[in-house]
Queue: 3 jobs
Job 1
Amino acid sequence: MTATEGADRRLLVIYPPGIGYYVDREFPVLIPGYSTVYALPDPQIASQFRTPPSGFVYPEYVPVVRGLPGSPLANRHVRDLPALLDAVRPSLVVTYECFSSLSDQVARSPRRAGFRHVVLCYETVPAWHSLWGWFPLTRRYARRTCHTADLLVAHSAKASVAAQSVGAPAERILVRSPGVYPPELRDGSLPIATHAPFEVTYIGSLTRNKGVLTLVDAALRLRGSQALGHEFRYSLIGEGPLRHEIEQRAAPLGDRLRLLGRVDEATKAAILAQSSVLVYPSLNIRFGPFVRWEEQTATAAMEAMAAGVPVIASDSGALPEIVGDAGLIFPRGSANALAERLSELGESVVGESMGYTKSHQVALDVTRYGDGGFVEKKLETMNIIANRQLLPGDLQAGRHYTNPGGVRLGVSELTRLGMKKDEMQEVADILHLALNSEKVAEVKRRVSRLRKSHQTVHYSFKTSPAYFYGQTGAKSVSSS
């Protein structure tokens, strides 16, 4: 079927380059009563559609600005958009992401009066902290698109907030999760009751932001465990730059962890059918002090839920919203929250590109303030206890353990007192003020105010006052 045949009402979906993973798992945009035509940058993408649209066209995509950093999504548009619109004659045009050059190109088209414009929004990070928001050109795209689009379909409530951060009117935003093709629904009980061993499945890229190393580390900790009366086995579906590191790190697990690479839909459905649980451990990743990434749509989690497979997911981005009460959400951790906020405030946190930490410790480079010994003493005068800490490269730079380049922030005591991610925002703000000023009295006041509301021990067999004193002879002894 050609692009101009079919129903009178035509829907044109202009598919951007650089995001080929969108189409292979989700429904194409098909609306009853419309003849749908997809404009694609590569004919090979057409073969990934499970429900083909009415037709395909292949316009030429060109860079908007040569040499502009960032993904092709932000810097590619159709060379001759008027010719494409004349060929298809759409009454509705769909583009992806408000910050893309394609969305802006459609928004500014001289033929704009002849069709309605719908933008699909996945990005969950507010504009000024997103990967694209730091480029003036893409910020301009987003503002124009959000002000002119007839409808923005946000795939999560967080994506709606991100669109509103660049001026999208709330009344023109529709929050709808993208669809998935559910694999075969299995019969009988959940595999937690019927399967041995306990099959843990991961589907996604083998990249740091997806948190796959968190899963591998958890698997190593569970090695030999017979929790729930099952042996644990792991199947990781996907490819990425961490494959070799995972192979090395997971070597002690032997054949209990399988790296399956990319698989076809039938194989994936068969693996899901035998899964006890799907784990989605995404992280929040920062790129410098302000720019960050978090999970957006979690298609694999939606597929698993549709197939009746329980999901265990982190609280990154839109995951809690997507999973809802159909699975378990685990926190990325108070230490991570503290590190993220300190980085956002401009402090130099060690390990940003790797998710900061996998423990209750955060390492902070304080060489801009002097050295770790000086900072340790300064913080102590403000009622903040931290430890000086040697950092990689300190010995080569001539620093030593008494005056290293860093300090170590341990949050296990704060967690024990019931402080969570929200409190870590305040802890980070207090630390930032202490490091960058001499306002001793103000810092002490804020420390005291924060501590007054956290006086009970949590995560123990019985809650009790955090600090009580008993008499042993003539001396008082703290329970902590």
Job 2
Amino acid sequence: MSIACIKAHDDMYFTESMAQALMGQGHYEDALTIYKILADTSPDNEAFRARIVSLKTLAERGRASRQVKMENR
């Protein structure tokens, strides 16, 4: 699953379990998207907010790593 594959009508898949599975597979940006949606629907859930902060860092590292790989081609 990539960020381009996630669409609004796919919200039945926007669960914490799905986000955790995506994280485990290294799909940090997709997991981040789902956690942001979950946080919007559960604004009092501090665990979602904390996960968003950590995923932002992981997603940024992943983007930087992909950019370096593309530049070295």
Job 3
Amino acid sequence: MSLQPFLLFSSLSFLLLSVAVAQEEESHNHDDHVDSEVFEYVVGQDDDLSEHDHDHDHSGHSHEGHGHDHSAHSDHDHSDHDHSAHDHSGHDHAGGHDHEHGHSEHEHEHIEELNIFTGAGVNIGGFLFPEIFVIGAGGAFERGANAEDFATSEHDPLHEATFQAIEPELHIDINQKITGLLAGFIHWGEEEDWEGELEEAFLHYHVTDNLAIGGGRFLSRVGWQSEKHVHQWKFVNQNLVNSRMLNEGELIIEGGEGIVHIGNGDLTIGGGGVRTHAHGGEEEEEGGHADEANFNDWVLALDYKFHIGCDETTAISASYVTGENGFGEDTSIYGVGLEKLLCGGEDGFGCGSLLFRSEFLARDFTVAEDGEVADHNDYGTSTALHYGLSDSATLSMRYDWVSAIDDGDELKLHERHRISPALTFFPGESKRLQARIQYDYSDDNGLESEHAAWLQFRWQWGGGEGHDHDHAH
């Protein structure tokens, strides 16, 4: 095992975490000495589309975090409120307060005191709400293996001890009529240098409580995972099926979209050009031109998430994506998902709650090489269980699978299975600090090693207490 960098990172991280907790307690004890003001900001728990923007989880309230991650609403996860419609997927209750800002943006409806140390209550002009998330991660591996061997996207940890992501965000909410988001991503890249990009920059105009239109640059909504930023993930690394089929899990559209509340859910339609990454990934490592099967020119994405039953504890997701791939041919993706919350309290996921979340994607694509045209398909699934050990700890288990494609040296993808148990802990009452340990067992002929252990820390400045905003469109 290559343990020295991991142990050093772990020791430093625990030291920093202890200092941060002490500072947070001190700031609570000295609130009277800090200039403060009371202001009202939208929390995004209403049912109308104005909530969508601040939750990048277009699905609605996700059970995992606070509330109900019911598929239509954003993730109300301990870390996200995704308020697109009332989705049990919106309230993502699995790991803390996950503010899944649906593309409904920042609708905060409770009053918070201004605190410059934690960023609570900080705003510009009453309509701009800044946030910063800093995520550090470290790993331990078998001899001869490294973090990059296990990475399937550039957002996964790429080094034994690293800054996995620094995500500054600026949420826009003008009288709940015009909402938007600017979201950046910075990390310590493969070349051991700082890399960054603007991942999202969009505005939405809420025509009525049931209709929002807008555009810009935004993460597409396909199932439960695709629109989440790193700080909203419930595990250290990206789901295998998202990395394989959705441009390394980052299918970014530059165009327009509309969100319509229909029945018990939300229909999101987005289309335009595709922002592509100039880096490799799982497919490039496996050889051939499999990465060319990704969307490369234009794309059209449709996603509908809705609840079943009166208690809104069950949600269904249905998605379809089509567009032009790197071969100049067509790629299409079909997706279905299920989410169920058991033993949820008034706020959704909590101590004693169990959240089941699963999605399945199938991909059809055409390859054109040297005048020859061939059709291929592959499949994948990701299924997770989250159990609330307490109000500050969540035990999770994930199973990932993607199928194989073998068309000689030109197109080859390995079948891969991965099992990932994880424990997420939120020290402190505000839940602005998060610690996560995770183990991965991978069964893949393309990997020389099967085992990986991870330690991850996340710190939040700004926004509501313990909320990761899942920005649902």
